[in-house]
Structures are given as structure tokens and as C-alpha cells.
Structure to design on (274 residues):
């Protein structure tokens, strides 16, 4: 289990001081990989015993065991393209470098069986509810557009009408929620309500300390770079497109028949210019 996953699992048991330690470690793993207990304590502004308690709360016998695991993980990550690009000094094209790293993080986050873990609740759901914050809105729209073409009962929830829309949600449904810091109050509170009513939650967010990660085990972490003055929409859209492709592949004939019916309706109504 990775350090971010361990932190996510322990999130609700972390004290405010331990949350500060977690934030520092997640922001810069080298602090933990190559620093002493005293170094990390000084960086966070806490005590050596607090660092040791943080390590044991994550399930390690002590700081040294935690440090060894982080070093192993970090050495593996440094061989990945997404990490190489982080250490490149390319001042001429910072936006391109940031986007390339973000796209790489999406593929990392959805590698192995992770895409299936996120996509299967969408495949089997009676209905799919899509919610998002401001930064992630483009991803939510992309997912709604794609899923609605390949399966029925897909609803994009708008903040102003969420009370009316979500009153139809029930166990057997799945909610896909996109949100990144700064987290939108509506997306978090609506997700909490859906989880309480037995709706399965799939979260696309930015780390184990996200409030969404505390609501479900089915979540993935993507990096969201700043492009100019704004956060990029590209990672959220990439996740949405990969999820749509997975669902279409799993639904097979059902997805094909639905697309064929939609195309026939578009032709009959002259939707597109000849």
C-alpha cells in the first residue's frame, strides 16, 4: 500500500499536527525519504515524538521503517517520465511541461486494474450521477457527454437544481464526483448525502487529504497543474474520456445499439449540416 493510500486510510484518525505532517510529506516526499526525524519536525514545526506517532499511526514500527518504504517508492518514481519532467529545467515551456506531467499522472493513476475499479460501478449502476466543483467542470461535462451516448440514466447535476435532481438517487446508483482544491462546498456536501443514502461513490480528486477520499475507497489521484492564472482542465477531461472508453468496451452491444439509435435520430432531425 502506498504512503498516500495509508494516509487516506488513516485520515479521520489524524490529529491536526499529524495532518500537517501528512501534507508536508505528500507535497515533498524527499523530506521523509532523505531527512531525519529532527529535519522533518523542524520543517513542519512540531516535535520528534509527533513524527514518530505519525509513522506508527500509518502502521509502521517507527520512523525508520516508514522512511525505508518511502525511499523505495521514490526510487521507483524517479524512473518514470512524469518524475523526470518534474526535474527538468525547461523555463521556456513550463505550461507544456506541466501538462505532460499531468497527463502522465492520469495514466499512472489509472494503471493496472485501477481503471476497472473506477469504471465497474458505472457499468453496473442503475443510474449515474455526475457532480463537480469549478476547476473540474470540464471533466464532468466530458463524462456526461460520453456516458450518455453509451448507457441510459446519466445525469449531470447542477448546483442550483441538485436538491430536486438527487431526490431520485437510491442504492444501486453510482455518483462520479470530480473536485480538486479549492473544494466546492456543494460537491462535498452533496456527495456526503449520496453516500449516506447508499449511493456508490467514485471520486476523481487530487490526493488522500481531499474530503472526497474520506467518503469512498474508490477514488483516484491526479495532478492538476496551474496553466497561467488558472488550474488546468486537461487531467479531469482525460480521466473522463478513459472512463467513457472503458464503460463502452464493457457494455459492448448495448453501447453500440444506443449509439446507432442516437445517430439515426440525429439524421432524422437534421442535427448536423450535410
Amino acid at each position: 500500500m502506498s504512503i498516500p493510500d495509508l494516509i487516506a486510510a488513516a485520515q479521520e484518525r489524524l490529529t491536526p499536527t499529524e495532518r500537517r505532517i501528512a501534507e508536508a510529506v505528500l507535497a515533498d516526499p524527499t523530506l521523509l525519504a532523505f531527512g531525519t526525524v529532527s529535519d522533518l519536525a523542524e520543517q513542519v514545526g512540531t516535535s520528534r515524538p509527533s513524527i514518530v506517532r505519525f509513522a506508527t499511526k500509518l502502521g509502521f514500527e517507527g520512523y525508520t521503517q516508514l522512511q525505508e518504504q518511502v525511499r523505495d517508492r521514490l526510487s521507483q518514481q524517479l524512473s518514470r517520465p512524469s518524475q523526470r519532467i518534474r526535474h527538468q529545467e525547461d523555463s521556456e515551456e513550463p505550461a507544456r511541461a506541466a501538462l505532460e506531467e499531468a497527463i502522465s499522472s492520469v495514466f499512472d493513476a489509472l494503471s493496472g486494474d485501477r481503471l476497472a475499479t473506477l469504471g465497474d460501478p458505472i457499468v453496473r449502476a442503475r443510474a449515474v450521477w455526475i457532480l463537480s466543483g469549478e476547476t473540474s467542470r470540464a471533466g464532468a461535462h466530458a463524462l456526461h457527454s460520453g456516458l450518455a451516448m453509451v448507457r441510459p440514466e446519466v445525469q449531470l447535476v447542477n448546483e442550483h437544481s441538485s436538491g430536486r435532481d438527487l431526490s431520485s438517487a437510491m442504492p444501486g446508483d453510482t455518483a462520479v464526483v470530480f473536485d480538486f482544491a479549492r473544494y466546492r462546498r456543494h460537491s462535498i456536501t452533496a456527495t456526503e448525502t449520496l453516500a449516506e443514502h447508499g449511493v456508490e461513490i467514485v471520486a476523481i480528486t487530487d490526493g488522500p487529504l481531499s474530503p472526497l477520499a474520506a467518503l469512498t475507497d474508490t477514488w483516484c489521484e491526479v495532478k492538476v497543474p496551474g496553466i497561467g492564472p488558472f488550474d488546468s482542465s486537461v487531467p479531469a477531461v482525460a480521466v473522463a474520456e478513459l472512463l467513457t472508453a472503458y464503460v463502452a468496451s464493457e457494455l459492448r452491444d448495448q453501447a453500440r445499439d444506443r449509439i446507432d439509435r442516437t445517430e439515426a435520430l440525429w439524421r432524422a432531425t437534421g442535427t448536423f449540416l450535410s
The CA atoms of residues 203 and 219 lie 4 Å apart. Residues 76-85, 88-92 have pLDDT under 50 and may be disordered.
